[in-house]
Amino acid sequence: MRSSEDEYVFPLTPGKFKIERTHAINRQFHRCTSTLFLWALFLIVLTAMYISLFTSGNRCLSSSPSLYDSVEWQKQVRDSAQIRRSNGLSVLVTGAAGFVGTHVSLALKKRGDGVVGLDNFNDYYDPSLKKARKNLLNSNGIFIAEGDINDARILAKVFDIVAFTHVMHLAAQAGVRYAIENPHSYVHSNVAGLVTLLEASKSANPQPAFVWASSSSVYGLNTKVPFSESDRTDRPASLYAATKKAGEGITHTYNHIYGLSITGLRFFTVYGPWGRPDMAYFSFTRNILQGKPITVYRGKNGVDLARDFTYIDDIVKGCLGSLDTSGKSTGSGGKKRGPAPYRIFNLGNTSPVTVPTLVSILEKHLKAKAKQNVVEMPGNGDVPFTHANISLARREIGYKPTTDLETGLKKFVSWYLSYYGYNQGKLL
Ligand SMILES: O=C(O)[C@H]1O[C@H](OP(=O)(O)OP(=O)(O)OC[C@H]2O[C@@H](n3ccc(=O)[nH]c3=O)[C@H](O)[C@@H]2O)[C@H](O)[C@@H](O)[C@@H]1O
Question: Per the UniProt record, which residue ranges are transmembrane (predicted)?
């Protein structure tokens, strides 16, 4: 078949044919070389983009090799891990610049344990709050390595420098409803990241005991209250809950195969100073102070939603109690030497409070009225209520929450006003 190009150069006279033909060949040659050139250019640009993406991706996932291979970086890790009490622990805290991670790190350091933090400082919520928490930790002698739990290299490095007795794993993609928007971030952090961290932990010598944050959301659509650890957890209402439930199964296999001591903590809606801006009590406070409306979800048939809101100091006590009673991992060199503990505890407050009551407590402490839009709870992963049975945690780790929502929110509001400068009259 002839191409349209051939038709275009077909000569009208034999004499003209050679010239036309030569021109045609020249034109074709030029076309070919310019097409080749364009393709080559395209490939070069593509390669350059790939290399730049790859290296910037690596920068996000891990510190550059030159940074954590440096003597200075390693010294900071070593110093931070120093134990300053007899029989003290040496703990790797993941998600150390997060809400619970910050408080747990400070409490461990305060009693003389060694603490090394790890955090990727992602922008799920305002990273400046995470930086402020980091500064707080730094000023208390706690170093936070900047890296992701999916980065096996940085994990191998910190385990190489420090013989951790414990891992307190709090890094996660949190938030129940955000899973609709960004499902893969949950799999990335709560499943893939967890496995990478467990791999590093089971290969470490000595193996650390592993305590980690599961979630009350694993109880999903259960209706029997209060929720007990032995209740079914096979009906998650959100992908977030499903990844936390997956984590419970995954940690079980590392306990079974490698002898890692595992404690999973099912946190119930933790709140308090230095909290997470994506949570209701925090965003309600911000909006009330700014005179903006808040959206209050309501269950079917106008039933108020309720949560077993748990104050951060109580959670910290539960975390430390879990670390102290974790029992040893039994494996070494990645091999199990005997059975190790596998535990799961509810860490809640045992007194659920409705969301409208949460709002009225905030109004009281903020001395301002909320503009409320009450809407039916959208089907985006929320559950209507949570309520913890904490008798197992009480018995096994001495867990005993002491802060009611009224008292805890007062402390939160006082921190909020001071942190955001309201007390200095800057923003009022
Ligand atoms: O305990 C848990 O397992 C979970 O607790 C919280 O999840 P959630 O209880 O949904 O906390 P909030 O997002 O602060 O919501 C609290 C209540 O306020 C309601 N809400 C939330 C946001 C909003 O704009 N309006 C509203 O009425 C929610 O429906 C819920 O009943 C955390 O965000 C999760 O990371 C954690 O794992």
Answer: 36-55
Q: What's the token pair of residue 398?
A: 């001495």
Q: Which of 239, 269, 282 to mutate to test the pocket of ligand 1 (most atoms within 8 A of CB)?
A: 269
Of the listed 186, 219, 240, 416, which one is catalytic?
240
CA-to-CA separations, 333 to 164, 205, 272, 361, in angstroms, rounded: 15, 6, 40, 53
pLDDT at 33 over 90: no
C-alpha distance across the termini of the chain, in Å: 80
Q: How many residues does the chain have?
A: 428
Beta partners for 208? Answer: none
- Is residue 181 within 8 Å of residue 226, measured between CB atoms? no
Rounded to 5 degrees, what angle do the CA atoms 400, 92, 147 make? 125
Strands 114-119 and 143-146: parallel
240 in catalytic set? yes
Residue 10 confidence (pLDDT) above 70:
no
Helix extents (H) in 300-404: 312-324, 355-366, 391-397
Nearest CA to ligand 1 atom 10: 176
- Rounded to two decimals, the ipTM of the complex is 0.99
Q: Are 117 and 105 in contact (CB under 8 A)?
A: yes
pLDDT for 65 equals: 60
Query: How would you class 108 by CB atoms within 10 Å of its CB: exposed for 0-12, middle for 13-18, buried for 19 or more?
Result: buried
What's the pLDDT at 24? 47
In the predicted model, is pLDDT for residue 409 greater than 80? yes
Classify residue 271 by its DSSP letter. Answer: E
**188 SS3 class:** helix
Buried residues in 257-291 as b, exposed as e (16+ CB within 10 A): ebbbbbbbbbbbbbbbbbbbeebbbbbbbebbbee
Give the tokens for residue 84.
Answer: 């300053």
Ligand 1 pocket residues where CB is under 6 Å: 174-176, 215-217, 267-269, 279-280, 295-297, 305, 307, 355, 377, 382
Q: How remote is the CA of residue 381 from the centroid of ligand 1, in Å?
A: 10
Q: What angle do CA 227, 232, 236 make, to 5 degrees?
A: 90
Q: What is the pLDDT of residue 35?
A: 65
- CA 253 to centroid of chain Cα atoms: 22
The pLDDT value recorded for residue 232 is: 98
Q: Which atom of ligand 1 is nearest to the CA of 213?
A: 37
Yes or no: say if 316 and 107 are a contact pair by the CB < 8 Å rule.
Answer: yes
Do residues 228 and 218 lie in contact, with contact meaning Cβ atoms separated by under 8 Å?
no
